[in-house]
Design goal:
With about 140 residues, this protein is mainly alpha-helical. Helix content is about 75%, strand content about 0%. The longest helix has 26 residues. It is flat, with a radius of gyration of 18 Å. The termini are far apart.
């Protein structure tokens, strides 16, 4: 008999299965990019981006169906940001990393500025702050090298 750990966040078994599927899709994107960027095979990379977007949208639909609305919304909102590194590689930008070090530094920079009790940030304001930091990183990190 299989056991479920159910509670406020839903069933653990479902969340593990969904997170494994997201991981499979993202690793397929990373590995395909590493393989085909050396060959200059842009058509395959564009196909992989489209496939990844389609798979992530399907996953977000499943998340909505099983009751993980906030995670489904997050994936829907972040889906284009997730494939940004591949789009930059296709355009010829070198030094693009798909690891999380840069993302963790970026989150730390934003957290420093928004963790004040007396401040209120709207969703639009936070998105603008994120875009400013991303532009700064791209200009300083990739255009100089």
């Amino acid at each position: 008999m299989s056991s479920f750990i159910c509670g406020r966040w839903g069933c653990l078994r479902i969340s593990v299965a969904i997170s494994e599927r997201v991981e499979e899709v993202l690793w397929a994107l990373c590995n395909s990019t590493l393989k085909h960027v050396g060959y200059g095979d842009v058509k395959v990379l564009l196909w992989r981006v489209d496939w990844t977007l389609e798979q992530l949208k399907k996953i977000s639909c499943v998340l909505f169906l099983v009751g993980f609305d906030s995670v489904g919304r997050f994936i829907c909102n972040a889906v284009n940001y997730i494939v940004t590194f591949v789009r930059l590689v296709i355009k010829g930008v070198s030094g693009v990393s798909f690891c999380s070090d840069l993302v963790e530094r970026l989150v730390g920079e934003i957290a420093k500025r928004v963790k004040h009790e007396w401040m209120y940030w709207s969703e639009c304001g936070l998105e603008n702050l994120l875009n400013i930091f991303l532009i700064r990183i791209v200009i300083n990190g990739f255009m100089v090298s």
